[in-house]
Amino acid sequence: MHSMTAENLRSAFGGESMAHMRYLIWADKADQDGFPNIARLFRAISFAEQVHATGHFTVLKNEAGGFNVTAGGGFGLGSTAQNLQGAIDGERFEVEEMYPAYMAVAESQGEKAAHRSMSWAWESEKQHVALYTQAKQAADAGKDIDFGTVYVCEVCGHTVVGAAPDKCPVCNMARDRFRAFA
Fold first, then answer.
1. What digits encode the pLDDT tens for the residues 136-152?
2. Is 22 exposed, middle or buried (0-12, 13-18, 19+ CB in 10 A)?
3. 90 found inside a domain
4. CA-wise closest residue to 153 among 119, 131, 181, 129
5. How far are the Cα atoms of 11, 93, 102, 110 from residue 5, in angstroms, in the given order?
6. pLDDT tens-digit series, residues 117-137
7. What is the DSSP letter of 141?
8. Exposed (0-12), middle (13-18) or buried (19+): which is 136, by Cβ within 10 Å?
9. Residue 13 is part of which domain span?
10. In total, how many domains does the chain have?
11. Which domain CATH number covers 7?
């Protein structure tokens, strides 16, 4: 694997890992603030971030023979609305800047597995921005978001509300590969 692609995968792994844990912490805060559905959304998308991190880790392990990740940075704990804004900002960064740049490098270096892992994560992050934006609008109005079960594809992290599709539109996996967060 080319060193720049490997470095990008390590960075993406670190970012997804931190998002996974940050969203679990923020879910607990949303529960405390009386927003159980927003908490469920945080937990569902946390799982999607874990799927992304696992995909990046697997590509690195299989292609690069393992790695050593160190990551830093602090993230505060605010109100549920503030935490949702932090989630929106982080997801937007991944959609608009991080993944497009990382995918371009992987593509230019012919790293198909790395490109696929990043592309699947990128597609999911777009959904996360939209879902968090809806949740923030509700929280800003002092309400919990009102939606049904959240489904997350266990392969690529595709996230939907209401019903899982027959086939994942991102990775083409069957409905039974979606985890329900009810």
1. 999 999 999 998 999 99
2. buried
3. yes
4. 181
5. 10, 19, 7, 10
6. 999 999 999 999 999 999 999
7. T
8. buried
9. 3-145
10. 1
11. 1.20.1260.10
